[in-house]
Amino acid sequence: MRFQNDGYLVHVFVHAPVASVADAAKADALLRAGNRRAAKKCLIGKPGVFAGPLSHARGQQEVIVQRPGVYVILRLMNAEDGRERFQHGMYRTIQIVK
């Protein structure tokens, strides 16, 4: 998997395992609303780091070794307006199948 930072701030790509795609959608909605505490209840394991920290215009490529499952990828850094990056829509849900 390749991670790329096209922004101007340093980014770290953190992953958090969830039980299902539905739980990922719920966690995404809660994170976007700024409710990190409620979103943590959707997690089923410890968060980890996929990539980073990555500076502006930097990328990182790696083989993903996490177990099969559904993961929410988010950026846990504050934006210029004080909100966390996932409140600006900087998150993704991926499913590892093998």
Strand content: 25-35%
The beta-strand count equals 6
The rounded distance between the terminal residues' Cα atoms is 14 Å
Main sheet makeup: 4 strands, antiparallel
Element order: H for helix, E for strand? EEHHEEEE
Record the strand order, biggest sheet: 3-2-5-6
Count of alpha and pi helical runs:
2
Indicate the radius of gyration in whole angstroms: 13 Å
Q: Regions with pLDDT < 50 over 5+ consecutive residues?
A: none
Shape estimate: flat
Fraction of residues in H or I helices: 10-25%
Mean pLDDT, to the nearest integer, reads: 82
Structure class: alpha+beta
Number of domains: 1
Summarize the structure.
The protein is an alpha+beta fold.
What does this molecule look like?
With 98 residues, the protein is an alpha+beta fold. The protein has one domain (2-96). Helix content is 17%, strand content 34%. It has 2 helices and 6 strands. The protein has helices spanning 21-32, 36-40, and strands at 2-4, 11-18, 48-54, 59-61, 69-74, 91-96. The strands form 2 sheets. Strands 3-2-5-6 form a 4-stranded antiparallel beta sheet, with helices on one face. It is flat, with a radius of gyration of 13 Å. The model has no long low-confidence stretch (mean pLDDT 82).
